[in-house]
Model the fold of this input.
Amino acid sequence: MKKQLSLAVAALALCATSCVGVRTQDDQTTVHAESFHLFGLTIPDDDQDMAWKKVPEGVEIRTVSSDPLDWTSVVGVINNILGFTATQISYTK
Done:
């Protein structure tokens, strides 16, 4: 029973680590999204898609920074097996 509860809490903690948010300062707005990767599965969703969904149409994009989903390098494979990726988009209205 304790083992099942521990696994459930661990699974919840892994899912809760992914988020998307918006921060505004003066006329600059920044959207950020993070995803957790476990054996090639993205939890809860692709961070790039989540971030772009929060950017309104008609704004001027200033910067975009994103971690690629890379299966061609050692670091990329390790990150896709167990790791995090993040996307950040800055824009002005």
